[in-house]
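Why predict the complex rather than its parts? Because the way molecules touch one another can change local conformation, and only a joint prediction can capture that. The input here totals 900 residues.
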Amino acid sequence: NGYYSPLPFNLFAAGASKKRSASAEVLKDAEYSVTSGRETLCPPEKPLTVEEWKKLMDEFADYYKFEEAMLMQMVTHKSHIDVAKSLLAAVANRDGNIPYNLLVMYLSFCVSQNEIEEIYDVYDIMKARFKTLETTAYGLLIKGLSGTERWREGLKLLEEIKKVITPSKANYGDCIRGAIVNQEINLASQLFREMLANNVMPDLSTIQTLFDTGRTMKDDHMKTELIHILFYLRDYQVYPGEALMQSIKQWFESIPGENWKGSLTTMKKSGRCPSCNQFLESINLSPGEYSTLKEKIIKDVIQGPDIFRKTTPQELEEFQAFVNQQPPYDIVVDGLNVANFNNRSNRSQTLRDVVTYLAQQKPRILVLGRKHMLNGTQQWKRNNMAAIQKIADFFFTEDISEDDPFLLYATLHSGNHCRFVTGDLLRDHKACLSDSHTQRLFFKWQRGHQMVLSRYRPEKIIKFEPVLEYDTIVQTTGNTWHIPYDDNFLERASYEVPIRWLCLQQK
Amino acid sequence: SLMMPSKAISCRTFVLSTWWNKNTSPDATEKIDLDGWKQVMRSGLQEDAHKGALETEEDNKRSLETKEDSKRALETEEDSHVAATRELIEMWRLLGKNVPENISEEQLKNLMECPTNSSKKKYLHFLAVKECVKKAEKIKQEKKREAKKERMENAKENGDYELPNTFLMKFWTKSEDNVYNWRAAQSMIFGQPLVFDMDYDACMTYTELKNAVKQLQESEGVNRRATDPFHLHYCSLKEDSPFHKELIKHYGEAWDKLFVTVTEKSHVEIFPRDQLVYLTADSPNVMKTFDHNKIYIIGSLVDKSIQKGVSLGRAKRLGLATARLPLDLYLQWELGSKNLTLNQMLCILLTIKDTGNWAEALQFVPKRKHAGFVDTMSHEINTRRKAKMYERL
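Output of the joint prediction:
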């Protein structure tokens, strides 16, 4: 279980959500442990004669798509090709024809077993029989042909697909592999660029093929191409898996005369790499990025298509005036979220404890809440609320308004040093942002500024998760590269980042 | 002589095991012509090939003719795209994918305007399902017609063809409609107003808009058949807006004869503000009783993407009172959103107006969404729990 104890632990670290749901998972597993009762066909071990198939088909006369299901089972059972052929022979004998869907199934069988001669035969028959094919068959043919001497025909098929729809990443990947196997590097990189231009995200295995080829060819053009890919990974925050990471490492180490040395590591909390002692890129946004983000948050998250959905113009104005009057804050607290951290303790007490704890280190604190917190109920005791108001500023929104957008605004308004406290992942607000670039900016800012309460016991323990100082992204300083990668055994949610790194340095 | 394969043990059906025990001699493989089917496929071709050659000749001639006209050449490029799409769909059908058999020019145009591959696939699936439903309906009608024919013939044979002696003429739907229309007309003078706020064109996709119009049509029908109908107002319905166009398309000539007040004005311009109550599932206020002096507003919005607080936002902007149905008080909610369709809302409001009984009115909430009505005991606990939940938010 060593994979689940990453250091330093953080809400956004890979595997965190998995760990949180671990106990729920156990229950779920028990519930679903009963295997499904679906019947399966088993393909015969040896080819059957026409008569034998005929008897079998009669027996299964009411079975939906018997032939297709049988062929599919042959794929999963890795049957011998003669068995599949004997089935087609029986169908041809019965109907004098083999329908298209069965041909495609047979093709997928041949592709899965890499029976090149058969693929050629089926392709020729299809070409002669049908004027055009469709995406499934094209995909299979491209895959089947890519490793053979007829790989160029795969490119033609790719053109056929393009006439009607955008080819998939697998289609492009297979063509690229075909081009690489046949030493057409320019063609491969041209296809790769075309794929990116069409907004098709490449498979990690496709990228891996390119790096693996780079190792065998010592070519400057190829080198720029691969560096370009690394920057693509950086821009789109794509993290390589373990296999691709190994390929990248080996490629670097194989560049002649540059003397790269790669090692696997996890970062220190401060962002210093233990293997090369360099600091990673800071998680703070540049001033330009910061102002873009601030603008977009106001426009997309708070105002949105209709400002009345989340608040009212009066309330926003009142809030802006309030924030502008005050000097910048050090910490902004989401009162309701923090108060609800522990179900068993009194809400106002929790909030009071946390704010008091924070006030010991940072003087300027803003607590956001809703008006109902002031009503003096059992959960919201007046004396606690009064005590908090002595050490921190308060802003109460209407009960009907959303408080999170105000939290974001107040924090951004106070400047880069200001942090906010909430356990909320803020995914719905991230989703309100109109473009993916700003969403990535928001996520980066969130990781660098969000404080998450990790443990609390009334009057005893208050602990926060560490806020990371460095950005988890593919990065370079010229003579070093740092590449975060996904562990094979660690499931990572979309709002988490990897914790393992590949450090490359030039000696 | 045949071994039991190890893989087979994991399988549950064993129909094939009889085959292994029987007559497969080891040299059976040699008797089977494994590649014979390829010959069959190719030989079938040679017959077709002759026809094909003739056709291609004709095609060539045709294409030469088209080339003469340079303007057409441009068109053919687009045509070839259309043709390629048609062929792709046909091949998908052969593969067994769920795509329509026949596709019209307009549908094909819509298809090519779909921005992503997945939206194209969804549209095709939609068309296929529609086609399937239509076909099934046609078959059903055919059967009905035949059954009727048979019945008539039987009646003829048996001789009970005489006209019955009755004190009433047959009551046709036309006279029924007359009665309903009288009532609707009456409601337009004396009835309690009920507003449909139509200012939501911008929040809906075309599909959602079509659904909204269908639900409106249904609501109007239900209202007309009620003993004491509402006086329906379609407010903020701008001339030539998508909503207006779609309504006219659906109603046809009947649109102008509808006993409904249609206006471009907003509800706040027609009615006093303090009488209006906006019904929305996002409202913090629960509707406890039906007030006969209030004018309730329903937003004509079908919202499949769940945009939060759209109608609540509108009510807040205009400073109107809001309310939601007391669903949690009376029903053990299980799944699904608490937004109900327009016709369900209307049925509920009609019933609560006539009876004042929520248990009866909430019969119209779809059964799949709740596990049943709450009894009073657990009801207490439930409300207390809900109150806590609200505080936590």
